[in-house]
């Protein structure tokens, strides 16, 4: 489902397999386990890059898993959906509180919770010729979890861009996403996107920032989001006074 490897100071988290990388409890748990390892072993200069194999970066929560409740009753299916929503909230909190810079390499489609996974990183890079960003909730017929909306308010700052994402369910191509300020750069191929992510990772890592300071500054940049996902900001003085 996912692998974690270390290349120098770069942690590379890869969603594996040629599938949709749907976020069910098993997948969420594996991502959380990987992020815990990153948090445990991070040091000044560490960077996380998240990427995925296949034609999807991540296609959101696993609705098929929700529908597969043994009873088949609607309330049991909804219970499963709420379980995934609540568990994925912790993944977002994990990413927002990680003590190192984070980069999402999106070389394929990112939809719904998959887009939330991408923009929970500090930087998002996309492949030019493949993949769209898409919040499907309006088309599916469901409202957004509170932390989805707060994450989008925090990361998609242009009102017109956010309207197109949430109230038009637009399928946004890479160059459009760049113009809307949702992502940071666009690259010609999957390989070039990955190479650009590694270059950015090396650049950020070379600064050797204190991870706790980095994490707290990130959290203080998104105070409303942190309230919703249960993170508390604290002051850190790592400098020698």
From TrEMBL:
Q: Does the keyword Lipid metabolism apply?
A: yes
Q: Which SUPFAM superfamilies match?
A: ClpP/crotonase
This enzyme's EC code(s): 5.3.3.8
Task: Give a single Pfam family match.
Answer: ECH_1
Q: What class of enzyme is it?
A: isomerase
Keyword Lipid metabolism in annotation = yes
Question: What's a GO cellular component annotated to this UniProt protein?
Answer: peroxisome
Please give the family membership noted in the entry.
Belongs to the enoyl-CoA hydratase/isomerase family.
The name on file for this protein is Delta(3)-Delta(2)-enoyl-CoA isomerase
Q: Which organism is it from?
A: Stephania japonica
**Native organism taxonomy:** Eukaryota, Viridiplantae, Streptophyta, Embryophyta, Tracheophyta
């Amino acid at each position: 489902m996912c692998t974690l490897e270390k290349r120098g100071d770069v942690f590379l988290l890869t969603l594996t397999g040629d599938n949709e990388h749907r976020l069910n409890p098993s997948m969420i748990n594996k991502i959380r386990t990987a992020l815990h390892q990153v948090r445990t072993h991070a040091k000044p200069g560490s960077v996380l890059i998240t990427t995925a194999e296949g034609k999807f970066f991540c296609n959101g929560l696993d609705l098929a898993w929700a529908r597969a409740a043994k009873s088949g009753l609607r309330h049991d299916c909804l219970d499963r959906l709420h379980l995934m929503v609540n568990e994925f909230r912790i993944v977002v909190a994990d990413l927002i509180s990680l003590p190192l810079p984070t980069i999402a390499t999106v070389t394929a489609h990112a939809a719904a919770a998959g887009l939330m996974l991408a923009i929970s990183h500090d930087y998002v890079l996309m492949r030019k010729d493949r993949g769209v960003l898409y919040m499907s909730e309006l088309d599916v017929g469901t409202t957004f979890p509170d932390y989805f909306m707060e994450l989008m308010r925090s990361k998609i700052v242009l009102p017109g861009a956010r309207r197109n994402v949430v109230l038009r369910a637009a399928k946004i191509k890479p160059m459009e996403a760049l113009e809307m300020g949702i992502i940071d750069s666009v690259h010609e191929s999957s390989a070039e996107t990955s190479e650009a992510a590694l270059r950015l990772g090396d650049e950020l890592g070379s600064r050797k920032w204190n991870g706790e300071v980095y994490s707290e500054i990130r959290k203080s940049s998104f105070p409303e989001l942190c309230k919703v996902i249960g993170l508390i900001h604290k002051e850190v003085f790592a400098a020698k006074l």
